[in-house]
Every structure is written in structure tokens, then in C-alpha cells.
Amino acid sequence: MRKLTLMLLCFSIYSASYAQEQRVSGKVLDAETGTSMPGVSVLVKNTTRGVVTDVDGQYTINVDPSSTLIYSFIGYETLETQVGNRTSLDVTLTPSISELQEIVVVAYGNKKKADVTSSVTSIDGGELTDVTSPDVSTMLQGKAAGVQVVTGSGQPGSMPVIRIRGIASLNGNVDPLWVVDGAIYHGTPNLNPNEIQSISVLKDASATALYGSRGANGVIVVTTTQAETGKSKLSLSTRTGYSYFNQGNFEVMNSAQLYDYYGQFANPTSIPSEITDDVLKTDFNWIENGTQTGVVQDHTLAFSAGTDKSKTFISLGYYDETGTVKGYEYDRLSFRLNHDYNVSERLTLKPKIAANYSKRDNKQHSLYQMYTNLPWDAAYEEDGTIVNPQDQGVTWYGRDRSNYLYDLQWNYSEGTSFNLFSNFDVEFDILQNLTFISTNNITLYGSDSKSYTDPASNSGEANNGELYTYSAKRITRFTNQMLRYSKSFGSHSLNALVAYEYNDYVFEDLGATGYGIISGTEILNNAAKPADVNGFKNDYALQSFLFNTDYSYDNRYLAQFSIRRDGASNFGRNNQYGTFYSFSAGWNIHNEAFFDVAAINSLKLRGSYGAVGNRPSSLYPQYDLYNLSNTYNGAPVTTPSQLGNDDLSWEKSYQTNIGIDAFLFERVNFSVEYYNKNTSDLLYFVTLPSASGYTGYWENIGGVKNTGIETMASVDIFKDGDFTWNVGFNIGSNNNEITELYEDQEIDRGRNVSRVGEDFNSWFLNKWLGVDPETGAPLWEVVDPETGEVSETTDWNEATKQIVGTSSPDFYGGFNTRLGYKGLTLSANFAFSKGGKIYNASRELYDSDGAYPTYNQQVLADDWSRWEKPGDQATHPQAFYGGNNLSNKTSSRYLEDGSFLRMRNVRLGYTLPTGLISKLKMSTAEIYVSGDNLLTFTKFTGMDPEVGIEGVYSNLYPVSRRVAVGLNISF
After folding, report:
1. Mean pLDDT for the chain?
2. Which pLDDT tens digit goes with each residue over 607-628?
3. Which 3 state secondary structure label does DSSP give 711?
4. Nearby residues of 530 by Cβ (< 8 Å), 6 or more positions away
5. What is the mean pLDDT of residues 360-380?
6. Residue 100 pLDDT
7. What is the CA angle 731-954-534, rounded to 5?
8. Is the dihedral of CA 227, 229, 235, 237 positive or negative?
């Protein structure tokens, strides 16, 4: 009886205990792919009780509501979640990749980050697509130390300029080399950013020497998206945005302001008599009339699936943008197919094909006339008819008597371009550690454009209308045949490759013009008179042999050596081949037995030295060239053009790089490095006197040096739990110096000068000294060439042309922040540049002290003032109708500080809860709103401080402000 009572009591206690538990079911998904995860351990915290997810990632467990579940799987971050009153609990696990295990794409392969001894910055594809843009180059701005990205134009479809670690040539190529999926590309590839998996920027000789003659200016390696084994996904990325014209600090005068400006002229009798207060009856805003809210659409549909046998990635993208200046539209359709097929355990075929088609419709309003036309001249009659200033009896105050809107009723231009990229790559495992890799690429480019000038337009009157057509095509071929060996034995690891590479290029174009057309015709054959035919063709070829080896001992000591032999078609027969090499070494100090610092998770010291080459911008610099376009008595004749040089040789850039990489407190990434690029045998086109019969010849004449420091830091302030916060920062400085020129003779390049000991981007101008406070006359500096004595002059022609600064910034970079709370994310990216002088050439017209009175003028900035009476300390001379002693001529007066801080992008996104999206049969879903270029802080008085790499601002199409709403979903 006692036993029975005891059994009933135990059963009652157990039943009461069990009654407090609840059944919880759910599914575990991969956070990146959205696929289910079998085999995940689901454990009740502080107990040994748990279950494992089934083949569909499903699990069921009985737990107390106060319990916490721990989800863990090898290679993923462990997740803890409190149960509460929930009976359904779906979670996602994030892949866990340590800093040292991260794979980085380098020249001709991949490496673990811990094994990298060169200067490489890797950017994940997801970090690129925050900014709304059709090109990848723009998205790199502010995201890699030492990489200067200058937009230069906000016109849809325009490409920025990229410089990596300064300018290392005078007349050679200074653009970085682009490599996409192992194939070297001609110029900047037109890629859909949504197709990109990662980008690596290779900066030092150790990273770029394997690309030989084309790696002197850095290399940008692009890897497009590949499918993953065992995972399939259909995803849609779509966004729609609105762009707004950005005038920055630039403002032209309205009707009253311009009239008051006329009232300041010191010679009022010179003002035309028709300029009376009647002009105040008209106040036409040309900028407002010519701008609009632009619309941008960016959509990409992608599918990927992978098995042990086959992996396929397919994407289709569409981008369309109308400009903030009326009348211009750019759209592009893109397609990509990447496929891997395992024929056998040893043979894999990797075909890839991508294509894009772009179209530009151009009836763009004239930026020049929007700025220069007077507010006293209206574009339209009262009834809405467009005014033709050329008609008799029309009152028009502007000098050019031109209303661009009149011709835009008929005239236009349009153009299309087509790019086809195709790869057929093969990998074959010859032996266990020996692989043959064949990379083969053909790119086809074709473009067609047309310009139509109607006979009814003012510009078409002289020739009774005009039609111009143009077409161009380009074919590049690339092949690389490589043997790669990899072997680990004990504490030693060895990787080596040897390869042969060939690349060639052919370009050809044709243009034709016809005069005398029937209004509306678009066929050149209908023109009454053939006016002009022009055509052009060029080509080049390169072949190379290359070798690289990497050695690692005990994950502590690292070494790399590479050598490449390049042959190029555009060098003299005596120096057609060049040899380039690099050495690098690294020391993983944290793996040493003596190193025991808990706060430092990894610490690496690395250094490199190497030589890379560069080729001239001309494709035929070594030859005697003749002009065949001249005629005599109706017959073609040859005349000398260029003097040849069989001894013309490669530019050689000798580069040293020293860097330190650290990972601290399991949350701080830090890197700092110093570089020295010393380039000799600079390629330069030397002009000859016309009496010689030649325009000039190419010669190796000098040297230039670039030195700098780059720093990068990234901190996970909060990285565990529901709230996460990461901040990142990078900064680079570059000092440029010309070290040698032919016979030390300086080269006057107009506004710039090449002089030993000076920056290549030095401004060479008359030095502005301001305004004479007693007379209001402009002042410039005169330097006696014999004594160096300095004096003043009011005569621009007597002023001494001298170096007055440089367009090179003191430093530049970017910073970013990203916050996350549950499904919410907030991120922002900033780009900045400090120092460097911009030459504001537009002020020669719009801030001319009366020299251009029939052009609209710029409103003076807040800290500017104009001289009116003796004793005034003014920034601007007294205004005269017709100008004041050439005060608006080219001088350092128009040099301005080019510093700026720009919010490139801010983005707020929300990812729907897993439970909700699973009910919708989706794996992920995110909605977001973003803004581009919403804030810019600068003292520059033009519309945009990003004026191009040369530092000259003139009638620039400014970068637009933009707001967009987007959606990312996957199934």
C-alpha cells in the first residue's frame, strides 16, 4: 500500500511538472540564402535536453516558457532565444567566418586573409548596391583607402574617374586595370552592380605585378555571383527613385539683382540705351525652366541553383534614368549566365555569358545657356510660343541671341551600345595537387549614334538641315593557360602557378554627314549632299609569361614571389619585352608561442617590393607616322606626322609597401600601411618645331614619385544580441613629386606645369593679390626673374606665371555606420576630401566684373564683397561695363578650396519576421528607403566640388540628390 501511494505521488508531481511545459515547433533557415538547415542542434540552455532539425530544417521540443533555446551548427553563429509564450519559433542562423578564415580574391586566385602579404582591399557585393547607380565605379567611392573616385558629372550613365595611389605617369595610361572573372578587360566594364559577388582592389606591386605592364596603376578584380551547391534561390531586387537638381552654392542673378549689378558699373555711359527699368518686367528663371525631378528605376531578377554536378546563376536587369536636366534619358538592359558543370570528378567546365544593351535619348536642355542667358529674356511668348531671337523685331538682351529651346523643338541625338562578354573556362585536375586552368574570353562592343539637325532650326539654316551617323565596333580576345600546384606537408604549405597569356584588341569606326534633308528624315541616303566621311581603326596585342609562388610555414611566416615577362605591340623593336617582378613577406605574430595578449586576436606585419610597367597612351608611338588625309591637285599625298623611336621603352614603377593588420577584442579591425611608388623612364610626347615637318615623337624623359599612408578601421561596437552597431573608417594621403624631366626642362601645360620637385597637378597661373583698396583695380604679383624681387601690377599681361597650389587633395576617404535592431537596419556612408584647389573656370564668365555683361552673373557668396569707394577692403574689383583691366582672365583668383564632406548614402530597411515570410512562401523579404547625396558640406562656390580628376570646374552637370524606395525578396 505504501508503494502504491508513493508511485501515485511521484506520478502526480511529474504530471504537474509536465503540465507547465509547452510544445514549441519551428524551422531553422540560413540567413544569407534563406534555405532550410538540417542537423542544427536545438538545446535548452543549462540542461542536456535538446533535439536536432530534420531534413527540412524543422524541429519540435517541449520546454518551459521561461526557458532559453540555443541553436548551434558548425560554421554558423550560435543563437540564443527566449521561448516566452510562443509555440511557433522560426529562426535564422548567420554563417560564422573568422577574420583569418575569410577568403580574399587576389591576382589569379583566392587566399585566406591570414595568408595575404600584399595590399588588397576587399568589398562585398552587398556593400556596393546601397547607392543607386548603373555603374560599379561610382559605388566604390569612399569604401577603399587610397582609392580616389571622382564622379565629375551627374548625367545619367556617366562614368567616374578612378585613381589608385596617385598619378604615376605623364602621358602613359593612369587608369586602373579591370579584371572580371579572371579575364582582363579593355577600359571599364559596363556591369550590373547586382551581378557582383565581390570586388578586390589590388594596390601594391606584390598584388599587381602578376598583371605586369597593366598593373602599374592598380587593379580592380571583379567576381560575379556564382551559385552554391545544395542551394537554390529566386530573388528580386527592385527600386524606384526620384532625383533632384543640385545647385550647391551656385546661384545666378534674378532680374532685379542683375539690374542692380548694372547700376554698379563705374562707366554707366557705356551701357546700351535699351537697358532701362523696363527689363524688370521680365524675370525668367532659366535653371528652373530647364530642370526637373528625374525618375530612376533599377530592377534585377536572379535565379541560382546548385548540385554536386551542376551550378547555375542567371540574372536579368533593367535600369532606366531620366536626368534632372530636362531632355535626357539613359536605360540599360543586362543579362548574365554563369554555369559550372562537373563533367567528372576531375573536369569542370565553366561557361559564362553576359550582355547589356544601353540607349541614350538626348534632347537635353543646354546647361551653358541655362547659366548664361539673362533673366530679362523669356523663352516663351505670352501665348506659350517659343521665342526665336533670330527673328527680326524680337527684343533679346543676351549676347548670343540664342534660345536653345527653339532648336530643341526638332533637333536631337540618340545612341545605342551593345556589350557581349563571353567566357569558356575549364579546370582539370591532372594530379591530386596539380590543376590545369584555362580562361578564355571574347568581348564584343558595338555602338551606333545619330545626330539630327532640322532645316527649320537656326542651326540647320546654313546647310538646309544636317544628318550625322556614327558606328563603332570593338573586339577583344583574352586567353590564359595556367598550371596551379598546391601542397601542404607538415607545417609547410606551398602554392605555385605558371601561365601563358595573350590579349589583343581591334577597334574600328565610321562616321558620315549629309547636308540638305527633308524635315523628319532619319536616313542618310536621303541627304541632298554628302558632306563628310571619316573612319578610324587601331589595334594592339600583348603576350605574357608569368610565374608566382606562395610559401607558408606553420601559419606564422609567409612569403611570395612573382615574375612576369610582357611583350607589347606598341614599343620599339629594341625594347618590346619587359620583365616585372615582386617579393613580399608576412609574419603572423599572434601565432608565435611567445605572443600571449588576450586583447589582440591577430597581428600581422607585412612588406613588399616590386617593379611593374606601364605603356604609352598611343598605340603606335614607336613608328614614323604619316598623314594620308591631305590632297594635292585632287590626289592624296603623304605628309610627315610623328617621328619614330625604336628605343622607346617601358615606364618602370618600383614600389615598396609596409603594412600592419590587426584584429582586436574580437571586434576591431585595423590596418595601416605606407607605400612608395617611384616611377622612372616616364613616357612623354615631345613636340617638335613645325619646321622639322613632324609634330613630335615619344621619349622616355623623366620620373615621378608617389608616397602615402593609408589607414582603415572597422569596429563592431555591438555585435551580439538583437542590437548591432558597426562603424568603419578609411583615409588615404598621397604626395606626388616629379623627380626627373628631360634636361630638367619644365613643361608648361596651360593651367598646369610639370617641374622637377613639384606635384604633377600643380597650378601654373598668374598670382592674384586681390583688389587695390584705393582704386578698386585688380592686382597680380610680379616676380623679377633675376633678383626674385616681388611687386604688384594692375596689368594682367605683366604678371608672373607661377605655381600657386595643386589640385591634389591632402587626404581623402570615407566612413560608414550600420545599426541593426531585430528586423530594422539603418546605415550611412560618407565620402570626404580635404585640401586641393579647384579652378572654377565658370567664374571667368559668371563672376567677370562686367567683362561679360550680356551673360547672367553669379550672386556673390556671403563672405565676398565688391569695391565701391576708396578704403574698401573688398574681394572683388570695381565693376565696369566691358570689364576692369582683364580682372576675369585666368589667374589664381578663381582657385577655390576643393574640400568637401558628402553623405553618399543613407538607408533605412526592415526585414520581415521569419514567421510571416514563411507563411508567404518566401525565404527573405526586405523593404527599404534610401537617399543619395542628400548632404554636402563645402565652401566651393560652384554647384558640385566633385569636378573631375583634373580639378577644373566649368558648366558641370552636378551630381543629383536622390531618394529611392526598394524591395528585396527571395524564394
Report:
1. 89
2. 999 998 888 888 888 888 888 8
3. strand
4. 512, 513, 514
5. 95
6. 52
7. 110
8. negative
**pTM (predicted TM-score):** 0.84
Question: Which candidate, 336, 376, 100, 340, places its Cα nearest to that of 224?
Answer: 336
Cα–Cα distances (Å) from 761 to 12, 425, 651, 778, in that order, read: 89, 43, 19, 26
698-709 burial, b at 16+ Cβ within 10 Å, e below that, comes to bbbbbbbbbbbb
Residue 136 host element (H or E): helix 136-139
> Which DSSP helix (H) or strand (E) runs through 502?
strand 492-515
- Amino acid code (one letter) for 760: F
Do 131 and 139 contact (CB within 8 A), yes or no? yes
CA distance 613 to 648: 13
pLDDT(503) > 70: yes
Q: 372: which 3 cell numbers?
A: 548664361
Helix (H, G, I), strand (E, B) or coil at 814: strand
Distant-in-sequence, close-in-space partners of 877: CB < 8 Å, separation ≥ 6? 771, 776, 777, 778, 849, 866, 867, 884, 885, 887
The pLDDT of residue 164 is: 85
Which pLDDT does position 6 carry in this prediction?
A: 41
> Measured in whole angstroms, how far is the alpha carbon of residue 760 from the centre of its chain?
22
What is the rounded distance in angstroms from the CA atom of residue 640 to the CA atom of residue 689? Answer: 13
- For 817, the grid coordinates are 555606420
Instruction: Measure the CA–CA gap between 134 and 113, rounded to whole angstroms.
Output: 30
Closest C-alpha among 747, 657, 737 to residue 705: 737
Sign of CA pseudo-dihedral 682, 218, 480, 549? positive
Which residues lie closer than 8 Å to 48 by C-beta, 6 or more apart?
Answer: none
Straight-line distance from the first to the last Cα atom of the chain, in angstroms, rounded to the nearest whole number: 63
DSSP E strands in 681-823: the ranges are 683-687, 696-700, 703-718, 723-740, 747-749, 752-754, 762-766, 768-771, 778-783, 790-793, 801-806, 811-821
Contact 157, 360 (CB under 8 A): yes
Name the residue among 414, 482, 483, 419 with its Cα closest to residue 451: 414
DSSP tag of 217: T
> Distance between CA 569 and CA 578 in Å, rounded?
12
What is the C-alpha separation between 336 and 120, in angstroms, rounded? 27
Place of cell 546700351: 272
The DSSP letter of residue 375 is: T
pLDDT tens for 784-832 read 988 989 999 999 999 999 999 999 999 999 999 999 998 899 999 999 9
- What the block records as the C-alpha cell of 481 is 593557360
- Give the 3-state DSSP-derived string for 153-196, with helices as H, strands as E and coil as C: CCCCCCCCEEEECCCCCCCECCCCEEEECCEEECCCCCCCHHHE
- Phi/psi at 767 (5° precision): -85, 120
Q: How far is CA 455 from the centre of its chain?
A: 41
Instruction: Return the pLDDT at 10.
Output: 39
Cell of 301: 531578377
Return the amino acid letter for 330: Y
Rounded to the nearest 5 degrees, what angle is found at the Cα of 796, between the Cα atoms of 793 and 797? 105
Beta strands in 344-465 (DSSP E): 347-362, 412-429, 434-453
H/E stretch holding 331 reads: strand 328-342
Distance CA 379, CA 402 (A): 10
* Residue 929 in grid coordinates: 528607403
CA dist 141 and 145 (Å) reads: 10
Instruction: Please state whether 821 falls in left (phi above 0), alpha (psi between -120 and 50) or beta.
Output: beta
Q: Is 274 helix (H, G, I), strand (E, B) or coil?
A: coil
pLDDT digits (tens, 9 = 90+) for 411-459: 999 999 999 999 999 999 998 889 999 999 999 999 999 999 999 999 9
Q: How far is CA 167 from CA 212, 581, 922, 949, in A?
A: 17, 21, 49, 10
pLDDT at 676 over 70: yes
Per the CB < 8 A criterion, the answer to whether 814 and 732 are in contact is: no
Helices (H), 218-362: 255-263, 286-290
Helix (H) or strand (E) holding 205: helix 205-208
